[in-house]
Amino acid sequence: MKNLAYTLACSVLGASMLAGCSMGAATGSSDREVAEAPASSSKSSPASPEISMAFAVDADPLGRRSGLVPEAWTAFENRFAAELAENALRQEGRLIGPAYKNARGLRVEGGDALVADVGVWGRKIGVSLDGTDDVLIKNFAFTHRRSMDQYGSGIYVGEKTPSAGVTYISNAYIDLAEPGPNPDYAIANNEGLAIGRNSEVVRLRKVALLGAEDAAIDSKGKVEVDASFLASGHRTIRLWSESDITIANSTVLAFPGYSAIWFGEGKSTFRYYNTRFGIVGSDESQLTLDPPEWMIAREEGAEPEIIALKEDPFVRDGETFWQPTTAPVLPEYLKEADAVR
User: Fold this and answer.
1) Domain boundaries in the chain?
2) By the 8 A CB rule, do 177 and 211 touch?
């Protein structure tokens, strides 16, 4: 049984609220001003979306302390929230604690949705999205998977029904807090983010994916990642047939003795730009800008395409999701990593 003793801290959005997660150098083009979080509305939950959460976890098996550093909303995110239909699902300013019998924190089925300033811990899945249209998940934290079986995810997109719209995940901290990588699927098959087949694109901006036994990202679809930190499982990124992943301005780490990029049978594509690759516990100076061959695993029949991009793949004008930001850096996964804010 996992230790589920928690200390919960709250502070105003944008304030310094750090519990082990430090921030690295800025990515993308020059820094720009960010808009303030949207004010509470009658459609919001009673808790103000200007209040965000951070978790401090006692007796973690790896000695980590989980944390979410809340971030102000961008113009794109403000517009998304403002343009949601009256009947769209809004979950804002919620803390969702442990439950048994494979419980989920939030189950979203169909339609557009906004999940903002929500923290979940001690559940099998933090948020599941099935048959959804456009969804924005902003300032989200998930820690300590609790499940009666080997499965679970921080966020699962299209588990039963493929998503029909774009899923945006902006500023999220997901740590399943498992004891380490485990390749035995009979007892360990969980990941930070899972994407089911035929789902629409999932876009990640400023996300930390940690502490799973299987993978950080397990994808059967299309994923775009910017300014993120991935160090999770025995295959950090898993690409099944017909999957397509583009990652930029990020860090991808493998645990000693395991791979970081796994390709299943069939065709799939992995693109990368200005991304650091290496092994958990190494010095930052040892990271490389191309994945070494030992980090790549291929199943029999795999036909991967690995592309080193020469230009930033994401458009960063003031109207897009891809606003410049600072990428998470977690010093407990790298030696000599500076805590920079």
Assistant:
1) 6-333
2) yes
